[in-house]
Write a structure and sequence with these properties.
Blueprint lengths: L1 H27 L4 H4 L25 E14 L4 E11 L3 E12 L7 E13 L2 E12 L4 E12 L3 E10 L4 E8 L2 E2 L4 E12 L11 E13 L5 E12 L1 H9 L5 E12 L1
Antiparallel strand pairs: 1-2, 1-13, 2-3, 3-4, 4-5, 5-6, 6-7, 7-8, 8-10, 9-10, 10-11, 11-12, 12-13
């Protein structure tokens, strides 16, 4: 019994000695904060001395290109095609953006609408960019140019927003707002509602537009990401014109509203 007691005492003494050595080593490796960070002015953003170099120097030029919609639409009248693409090149704060979109009838002929934009973009918050630049429409005739000022980013609940104010070379003012949301049904299957709203401040009957709310375009697309960069989709698109713009469309032989079942693809790199 006595020998067992002596044995346990020796074990506890050994463990206590080891713990003391570890604690001493830890204390020996601990340095006072004042000895690591010298006294003097500090950077308000990081707390580091103001004379120290910034921790990140990221001035790399990056680029991005996406085809958001490239689709065929089966309608009650002539079937049509549609494209909507954009991209940018630049750094974290300053970018050059380009955008293009349009649509036309299947079976040949010129597109009904063709639009190009060239924009300078400046990041104003981590999720928002302000844009200014030019837009040029080559269809329908006659061609015309616009000055553009807009803002693009994420609204609460991850609602994507792209809004812009346009002033044409004739002084006509118009507004466009595009809003999208991605609902992840699975990691690869995504349901995307989309709404576009167009308004004009003046009448432009030569382009089939009247003042007020011109039209809305609503869509619902279900896509499957074969790869993150490539996703075919199916869906439905509904376009509705309003007021005098609706009357101008009917007078020129166009429909005031249309519904199309669509099949297309989305890609980016």
């Amino acid at each position: 019994m006595r020998s067992m007691t002596l044995y346990l005492s020796a074990v506890f003494a050994t463990l206590a000695g080891v713990a003391g050595v570890v604690q001493a080593e830890e204390l020996a490796g601990t340095a006072a904060l004042n000895s690591v960070i010298p006294n003097g002015p500090t950077d308000s953003a990081s707390g580091a001395p103001a004379a120290w170099s910034k921790p990140i120097h990221d001035k790399q030029i990056n680029h991005y290109f996406s085809v958001d919609r490239l689709e065929y639409g089966a309608m009650g009248g002539p079937d049509n095609y549609l494209w909507d693409a954009q991209g940018w090149i630049g750094g974290d704060y300053n970018k050059f953006w380009w955008k293009t979109e349009g649509e036309g009838p299947m079976g040949g002929g010129a597109p009904d609408d063709t639009e190009f934009q060239a924009l300078y973009s400046r990041m104003i918050t981590p999720f928002w960019n302000a844009e200014i630049g030019m837009r040029y429409d080559v269809n329908p005739n006659p061609d015309r140019g616009f000055a553009v000022i807009g803002i693009q980013g994420l609204l609460p609940y991850w609602l994507e927003s792209d809004t812009a104010l346009f002033v044409s070379e004739d002084g006509d003012v118009s507004f466009r707002g595009e809003f999208e949301y991605e609902l992840l049904l699975t990691q690869r299957l995504i349901l995307q509602p989309r709404v576009e709203v167009n308004l004009s401040a003046q009448d432009a009957p030569e382009y089939g537009l009247a003042s007020g709310l011109n039209n809305t375009e609503m869509g619902l697309r279900l896509r499957y990401q074969i790869r993150r960069e490539f996703a075919p989709y199916i869906g439905v698109r509904w376009d509705q014109k309003y007021g005098a713009t609706h009357d101008l469309a009917r007078a020129s032989g166009e429909d005031g509203s249309s519904t199309a079942f669509v099949i297309g693809m989305r890609a980016w790199y």
